[in-house]
Specification:
By secondary structure, this protein is α+β, with helices and mostly antiparallel strands. It is built from eleven helices and 27 strands. It is about 25% helix and about 30% strand. Strands 18, 19, 20, 23 and 24 form a five-stranded antiparallel beta sheet that branches. Strands 21, 22, 25, 26 and 27 form a five-stranded antiparallel beta sheet that branches. Strands 1-5-6-7 form a four-stranded mixed beta sheet. Helix 11 links the parallel strand 15 and strand 16. The longest helix has 21 residues.
């Protein structure tokens, strides 16, 4: 009888969670509500038991700059959806057909190209798709997939969105049983990842070694850099402090010296300066001055310029209608030559929540993936070996792979990359240093480069 009563109690708690939060779809804040706080621990403990086998290794966790079929959002921001649709496709997540019709009416009123928009009709608890959305991978056999971490909010509708998207795309979904959010995770696509130490705090039932092991097995993260960022004062997400815009390039916040966040930001910058990028060179770090947005509040408020989003060769950043917008655009353009730098009306968002928090890419699976392997250049007989793992588009083979060397904007050498083993292709050059990019064409007729916007962006070694 006691056992039966316990089961009824647990069922009642679960129904309360589902009914309480599904009823407030898209309206919940980025932080925890007072009702959610007492439910959080038991909810997360339950979700941590839902673990799958990892994907076949070695795994590649994909960077934000990979090709996307569409940019996903739930944010009803006219400026954002107009900008996204002018540079690519947009996938809107909405609760039901009524919500879809409302979106379509807005799109029509804005005179936008309706063919650029499509919809996922799926229940959600909130707008923060960056935090609960899918993490994209390519597994060791070259197959596309999704890793689904646990959202650090007791929001069951949000938490199952990656599974829904996996079914829509017919790709496997892997669950590492780790509490982690997309706003606190950057991957360079080449085995390195970055976040705050929140990942350790929220997974304190595991040792740090166990967390790192799961990051390696499920996401292919060989080097995971973590540092304290606004601990006990913010949501501790890296995307409120810095932005990884390319495998070797950061844009990082520069706080006033009297800010309580100054020390954390500078510590992280020093850590990055002590490391080598996956191209074997120091990181390029561009600083973005944090402008105060305080209106008499007792705590620090800043403009959310750092909270930006990359999709298909464009970077979208929040704008506020003053000179700070121009400064932010200039810094991003310096960091990302060749990219379109697009301002989006911030619509009242400030530091800790803006464009990046409310968007996520629907990464293209029908494409070529190129993963350079040049972190430690190998010199043999005075020759540099350049290698890359290359995954052709589905049901295709690599037709041509080349390393193209550039000096002062001009092509100076073109080397054919030869299949060495598995998906790895290699070539050698006498050049001890310089810049190049990799170009690949497969038998489906697709061509892709790494970096994606080469030759405007290049690999420097």
């Amino acid at each position: 009888m006691i056992k039966y009563s316990l089961i009824l109690t647990l069922l009642s708690i679960n129904l309360f969670v589902l009914n309480s939060f599904a009823a407030h779809a898209e309206n919940l804040p980025i932080g925890l509500t007072e009702k959610e706080k007492p439910l959080l621990e038991s909810y997360l403990q339950g979700q941590m038991r839902n673990v799958t086998a990892p994907p076949m290794g070695p795994v590649h966790s994909l960077g934000e700059w990979e090709e996307a079929d569409a940019a996903m959002t739930l944010w009803q921001n006219d400026s954002l959806i107009k900008a996204l649709s002018e540079h690519g496709n947009v996938k809107i997540l909405t609760q039901n057909n009524s919500g879809k019709n409302s979106w379509l009416a807005s799109i029509k009123n804005l005179n936008l190209d309706e063919s650029k928009f499509s919809f996922y009709i799926v229940p959600t608890d909130s707008i923060w798709i960056r935090d609960y959305g899918p993490w994209w991978i390519v597994d060791g056999s070259g197959k596309f997939g999704i890793v689904d971490t646990i959202y650090n909010r007791p929001r069951p509708e949000d938490d199952v969105v990656p599974e829904f998207i996996g079914r829509q795309l017919d790709v496997p979904v892997y669950k590492p049983g780790l509490v982690h959010t997309g706003g606190n995770y950057y991957s360079d696509g080449l085995g390195n990842a970055f976040s705050s130490t929140l990942v350790e705090t929220e997974n304190n039932n595991f040792s740090v070694a166990q967390v790192l092991e799961r990051m390696l097995n499920f996401l292919g993260i060989n080097s995971y850099t973590r540092s304290e960022l606004g601990k006990n004062a913010t949501i501790e997400h890296l995307d409120t402090f810095g932005k990884l815009v390319a495998p070797d390039t950061w844009v990082f916040s520069e706080f006033p010296k009297n800010s309580r966040f100054y020390t954390d930001a500078e510590r992280m910058v020093q850590i990055l300066k002590s490391k080598v990028s996956p191209y074997g060179t120091p990181y390029k770090i561009f600083r973005l001055r944090m402008n105060s947005a305080s209106k008499g509040q007792s705590r620090e408020y800043y403009r959310a310029y750092i909270n930006s989003f990359i999709s298909n060769g464009a970077l979208y950043f929040p704008t506020y209608g003053d000179a700070g917008d121009d400064e932010a655009k200039r810094v991003y353009q310096q960091a990302l030559p060749g990219y379109k730098i697009v301002g989006v009306d911030a619509e009242g968002t400030e530091w800790g929540d803006s464009v990046h928090c409310r968007t996520r890419n629907l990464i293209k699976k029908d494409t070529i993936f190129i993963f350079p392997q040049i972190q430690t250049p190998v010199f043999t007989s005075n020759q540099l070996t350049v290698s890359a793992e290359i995954i052709p588009s589905p049901n295709s083979e690599v037709l041509k792979a080349e390393a193209i060397f550039v000096e002062n904007g001009n092509e100076v050498e073109r080397l054919t990359l030869i299949l060495d083993h598995n998906h790895t292709y290699k070539a050698q050059t006498n050049k001890k240093s310089g810049e190049f990019y990799i170009s690949v064409t497969d038998t489906s007729g697709k061509t892709k480069t790494h970096p994606l916007l080469a030759p405007k962006m290049l690999i420097r070694y």
